[in-house]
Amino acid sequence: CVHISLRQGVPTGALLREIARCGTPSLCRQILLALGAIFLNYTAIRYAAPDLKDSALAAFSVVSRIMMFAFSIVLGLCQGFQPVCGFNYGACRFDRVRQAYLFTSVLSTLLLVVIGTVGYIWAPTIISWFRGEDPALIAIGTRTLRWQCAVFPLVGLSTATNMILQNLGYTASASLLGSARQGLFLLPALWLLPQMYGLSGVEAAQAAADAVTFIVSVPTAFWVIRHLRQQERRSGNVSVPQAPIHQGSTNLYE
């Protein structure tokens, strides 16, 4: 039932706009991720004591790698949610989109609770795996890792909400939320908190950015659920199991 045609492979303006619209949130997120890492390293060197600059820079680098590895688990879960969201939204199965969104948000939060708890309790041991001969690095890295692990469970909802906004075509909202953690809130936190608390402010900046991003995500999540419920009522679809595909059927949605 699928026919290949070279004529259909020629990019059009509408297709390129659709690609740009869907990819803009990821583009903003990756750009600000790089800028956030650069500014984090700069502030770590600036506010650390002269004899601790190398240890502070190494500690923040180690913590960033640890958190990126842990976050990739939830990111993979949320990226697996994207095709489920897109296919069912296109098929007007808004009930399934809502259920999948809630399931992804809850499961990712529970996973992050476990990961955050383990990371918070065993933070000194985890940091020492990388460079156990540097007590200053372990001390700075432990405080930074514990700050981030304390708010790590909050990241699940914001990530799932960003993914569903991106899939539903709300480019501006998805770009704003995707940029919040690594740019809109992290960069001001890295500018303000170190001026007030020195190196301790640098250690807590990423956790503060995660907490504020979660606060912004909560009303957005309620809006998404309300929007999907309204779509359900308009379309009249309900949560019922689909009939099995009968042999010889030509209806792909049967």
Summarize the structure in words.
The chain is mostly helical and 254 residues long. It is 80% helix and 0% strand. It has helices spanning 13-47, 53-90, 94-121, 123-131, 135-151, 155-168, 171-184, 186-197, 199-235.
Residue-averaged pLDDT: 84
- Helix count, DSSP H or I runs of 4 or more residues: 9
The H-and-E topology, N to C, reads as HHHHHHHHH
What's the main sheet like? none
Give me the count of strands: 0
Q: Please report the distance between the alpha carbons of the first and last residues.
A: 15 Å
Features:
254 residues, disordered C terminus, mainly alpha
Could you outline the blueprint of secondary structure elements for this entry?
Blueprint: H1 13-47, H2 53-90, H3 94-121, H4 123-131, H5 135-151, H6 155-168, H7 171-184, H8 186-197, H9 199-235
Helix pairs in contact: 1-2, 1-7, 1-8, 2-3, 2-5, 2-6, 3-5, 3-6, 3-9, 4-5, 5-9, 6-7, 6-9, 7-9, 8-9
Q: Can I get a quick summary?
A:
Helices cover 80% and strands 0% of the residues.
